[in-house]
Amino acid sequence: MRADGSGSGTLSRLEIDSLKAGVRIEDLAARYVPSLRRVGERWVGLCPFHDDTRPSFNVWPDSQSWYCFGACRRGGDVVDLLREAEGVDFRRALELLGGPPAGATAGRGWQSPLPVAVPRQSEAEPELTCEDRAILNAASEIYYQSLMTNAAMRRALQARGISLGTAQTYHLGYATGRRLARYLAWRHLDLERARCLGLLHDRLSGEDGANGDTSGDDVWEHLSQRLVVPVMRGWETVYLIGRATREAQRPKYLGLALPKEPLTGRGRPRRSQGIIVVEGPFDLLLLHEWGYWRQFELLALLGTQFKRRWLAHVGPDDRLLVATDQDDAGEAAAAELMAHFPGQAVRLRWPEEYKDVGDLAQAPDGHKIWARALSDA
Ligand SMILES: [Zn+2]
Q1: What is the dihedral of CA 90, 95, 97, 99, to 10 degrees?
Q2: Distance 47 CA to ligand 1 centre (A)
Q3: CA 50 to ligand 1 center in whole angstroms
Q4: How far apart are the CA of 19 and the centre of ligand 1, in A?
Q5: Dihedral, CA atoms, 232, 234, 237, 240, nearest 10 degrees?
Q6: So what CATH class is 263-376?
Q7: 242 C-alpha to center of ligand 1: Å?
Q8: Whole-angstrom Cα distance, residue 161 to residue 164?
Q9: How many angstroms is it from 72 CA to the middle of ligand 1?
């Protein structure tokens, strides 16, 4: 979903992942953040990118990500950290991680690190304890209730083309930023564990409530003031992703300190015409709204990286309709999917002024544009 306008040249997604896996984010961050220290399952220090007096720079080794909760309000992975710290572009950051110099191609003086370095991300199902599941379900529940009683947020959903019915089907929610900790405590659930999952963290006194949270509580809700999409397996919530509700909120999407799981629709319809793969949860929600769940299985990667097991059920005769974003990262993901499923995967195209499927909700004839993209495939 990142539009950095700097392609990765000839590097495959796997090679990029491999370069990223070559460095631990906590080691890299320590170079720029001398004050970095361990607090539970994360690392915290003074942010090197703004005038920080209280440590607001956070690093999560589990997800190999970082985020500044102070003035910056942004974060990312090792590449984003290098880009920010060294003031370089995407391509140069990969070079600093050991990638080929710009212009070089594999086999001409540069060896892909693939044979030695293996992507670290585990392919195994994430293991959530009973308590973890109870906490995630409770969070999803309180967020759902908050959305159902918040007319402004339901209107915001409608503006993205999502009806109340779809919101209920997907159990969408809204994080007010002030209800979760109290609700979990009332349910006698472990707040410390909720911190580990990435739902809550201590508000450090440097944090200014830039998200509009003036509750004065000393606990900060990670998905505060975001529309929340739960990833469900059966009746259980296994992951939550929060979408910004205002332009100024960064990043646009925020997840938990858990391995990401894809958002799936209602499964495979009886007479399936294929699997539509999109990036963002709102891309999937819009396609559901338009009724495509009746003919297609819907899958949102929640980003551009995917694991093989997410697509392990794809049969040799299944068509894969790839509708990832029309930007560098989305094209790279599409190319990777087409390489995985030669002859089965097709790239869908629509007018370039709409970066992702969700943007089509803003077009007066968005549904028609999509139908045309689908029939052209
Ligand atoms: Zn900062």
Answers
A1: 110
A2: 5
A3: 5
A4: 25
A5: 0
A6: alpha beta
A7: 20
A8: 10
A9: 4
Report how far ligand 1's centroid is from the alpha carbon of 58 (Å).
Answer: 10
Helices (H), 65-209: 78-86, 90-96, 130-148, 151-159, 164-169, 180-186, 191-196
Angle formed by the axes of helices 13-21 and 328-340, nearest 10°? 110
Q: What is the pLDDT along the chain (377 residues), one digit of tens a residue?
A: 344 444 455 788 888 888 888 888 988 898 888 888 888 778 899 999 998 888 889 998 878 889 888 888 888 899 999 999 888 888 888 888 888 776 555 444 444 443 333 334 444 455 788 899 999 999 999 999 999 999 999 999 999 999 999 999 999 999 999 999 999 999 999 999 999 999 998 765 554 444 444 445 677 899 999 999 999 987 889 999 999 999 888 888 999 988 888 999 888 888 899 999 999 999 999 999 999 999 999 999 998 888 878 888 888 889 999 999 999 889 888 888 888 888 899 999 999 999 999 999 999 999 999 999 999 98
Residue with tokens 């044979």: 115
- Domain boundaries along the sequence of the chain: 1-121, 130-254, 263-376
Distance CA 16, CA 93 (A): 11
CATH topology of domain 130-254: DNA primase DNAg catalytic core, N-terminal domain (3.90.980)
The complex scores an ipTM of 0.99
- Give dist(CA 205, CA 228) in Å, integer: 26
CA of 51 to the centre of ligand 1 (A): 7
β-pairing verdict for 297-300 and 263-264: antiparallel
Distance 177 CA to ligand 1 centre (A): 20
How close is the Cα of 86 to the center of ligand 1, in Å? 15
Contact residues for 328 (Cβ-Cβ < 8 A; gap 6+): 2, 3, 4, 5, 6, 7, 8, 90
CATH top-level class for 1-121?
Answer: alpha beta
Q: Hunting for tokens 């509009």 — which residue is that?
A: 212
How far does the centroid of ligand 1 lie from the alpha carbon of residue 11, in Å? 30
Say if strands 65-68 and 75-76 run parallel, antiparallel, or are unpaired. Answer: antiparallel
Distance from residue 9's CA to the centre of ligand 1 (Å) = 30
> How remote is the CA of residue 52 from the centroid of ligand 1, in Å?
7
How close is the Cα of 68 to the center of ligand 1, in Å? 5
